[in-house]
Amino acid sequence: MSKNLDGKVALVTGSGRGIGRSIAMKLASQGARLVINDLDAAPAEETAAEIRAQGGKAVMCAGSVTAPDFAERFIGTAVSEYKGLDIIVNNAGYTWDSVIQKMTDEQWYAIMDCHLTAPFRILRAAQPVIRNLAKAEAEAGQRVMRKVVNISSVAGVFGNAGQANYSAAKAGIVGMTQTLAKEWGRMNVTVNCVAFGLIKTRLTGNANEGGTANIEGREIKVGVNPGLLAAMEQTIPLGRGGTPEEAAGAVYLFCQPESDYVSGQVLLCTGGLTGI
Ligand SMILES: NC(=O)c1ccc[n+]([C@@H]2O[C@H](COP(=O)([O-])OP(=O)(O)OC[C@H]3O[C@@H](n4cnc5c(N)ncnc54)[C@H](O)[C@@H]3O)[C@@H](O)[C@H]2O)c1
Prior knowledge:
- This protein is α/β, with parallel strands linked by helices.
- The chain is 44% helix and 16% strand.
- The protein has eight helices and nine strands.
- The protein has helices at 18-29, 41-53, 70-82, 105-139, 154-158, 164-184, 226-235, 244-255, and strands at residues 9-12, 33-36, 57-60, 87-90, 146-153, 189-196, 212-215, 218-221, 266-269.
- The strands form two sheets. Strands 3-2-1-4-5-6-9 form a seven-stranded parallel beta sheet, sandwiched between helices. The chain has a two-stranded antiparallel ribbon with strand order 7-8.
- Helix 1 runs parallel beside helix 2 (41-53).
- The chain is globular.
């Protein structure tokens, strides 16, 4: 039986864990061939291995999305391995919070680099590849739709105390989404954004468990204070945080052919929350 994304080439950053991992699994389950990325090679390899174990196709392009040569390597992997490029999901990320008076330049730029500059470079590197593919398809009388999904946050749409860096970067990706939807429509690319509310991952686990993530040599605390987490959940109309699978479902909406005429949109995947 044919699947919705049969043969499509999909690239997902930060797909070793959490939401990115679920997005990669979802796209693979629909027939897409994946390029898996993560800062941490081991979880990325696990995602790729699980896709292969389920009969899918996945190759790795490990490393930080902030590395200056990453974008060329990432796009290059799709082209060399699969000879194509259909879906790009800019998902990799983390938070490094402080109130503004305590936020260092290092904190500001680290979050900007990961959430805004890296997607910019990836999409810039993708443009000539997509342009050439679209040109050849047009000459052959075909129209092949391609998809970009950028990941934002309610912090980027409504703001969030303690996250000047993150909310600015996540608002920036909304602007870039809307601009590229205008620039890339003529290449038959839809460019959309999914802004998550509370999704249960390492990022939003119990901060009291003292978890940290090593991000490019920096040990950064992960998690949210459990009292705050419980209070946040109470404000969600569905009464709970979402699962990574539910988050992936929202991204998939923009990747499937049924959304071919939807572009430049920001979808809130928040369990019904319309503000914070
Ligand atoms: N979980 C939430 O509630 C929530 C809410 C809003 C937005 N988001 C966004 O969703 C995305 C995924 O977050 P998550 O909750 O799945 O977090 P997560 O920590 O579970 O997974 C994020 C993955 O990204 C990887 N990563 C981080 N920095 C990277 C880099 N520089 N290069 C490559 N990989 C990198 C991490 O190693 C990790 O495997 C992020 O962009 C995050 O900002 C999450």
